[in-house]
Amino acid sequence: MVWALKTPLHRRGVILRRSRKWCPIGVDMGSDSLRLAQLERGEEGATLIAADVRYRPEALEGGSAGWQRWAMETISELTADSKYRGREVVAVLPASEIFVEHIKLPQAEWDRLRRSNPETISKIKQELPFDCDDMVIRPVPAEQDNVVVIATRRQIIDRHLAIYEKAELQIKSIAIWPAALANTYAGFFGRRESDAESIVMLICIEDNSANVVICRHKNLLFARSVAIGANQLGTEEAMARLILELAACRQHFSTMHGDGEIERLIFLLGPLQSREICLAIAKQLEMPAQIGDPLGAVKILDAGGAGIDRRQLQTNWSVAFGLSLS
Hints:
By secondary structure, the chain is an alpha/beta fold. 33% of the residues lie in helices and 27% in strands. A 5-stranded mixed β-sheet has the order 3-2-1-4-8. A 5-stranded mixed β-sheet has the order 11-10-9-12-13, sandwiched between helices.
């Protein structure tokens, strides 16, 4: 699932190549941190080739010109390390820089949309809460005539493309975080035959957000980013607000998908992130749940050589791993 960016990429002279034995480098670039990970697929599962995490200096404002220079220099430095293989990357826009909406769109209108029908595109733009003149819109078909609309400003995409261009990397695609989380679930925790048809709710708790995806295996059905994360969950009030938000996500999905039933919650966490919080959420929502640690689901032949710092095991690799699996 990628943005339709063929024109800008070709204009910038980016050469798209398929990796050989290894997956592309997944780059999870948020406003506060930068995470890189590269996996290799094998008959017995995935192996972690390399991974790094860096945090934005407090003096730099996320999204600023200084932040952009820092991101470019940091990515250049990290990918210059011989532990990474190739120069191909799958990147993602931060959740804070994209807008997600869910609309009904009958199949006939979806067919017109694929032909860039102005009337249907105009209908989608009416659902967006801002000026659309400089917007790039990515509609993702769900089920039962539902569409997940992903939108962002073109200047944001251009800013991110400039970072990778200056770092001399080859962009395979710019993906979206909901698809990356669905990839991580399908690749590591949804491998049973019965999982192919199961609807699950993924919850990825970051430092300052909880990112929610409802999917049927890799098929995206619903997505929302809630501005309550691990840094805010130190009080009962914050926990209660998060549970209300998650319940609202479930209700919204139920309203749009009717007979679609969520079978279980899956919390995508870092190795040392709080299991107690997850158990409390599952209890309040009265739903079966499991915890999935992507780092624990891959083989690590040499933690030090791969760049895994045991002092940073709070890091959540869910998005970065899902990008590399793209």
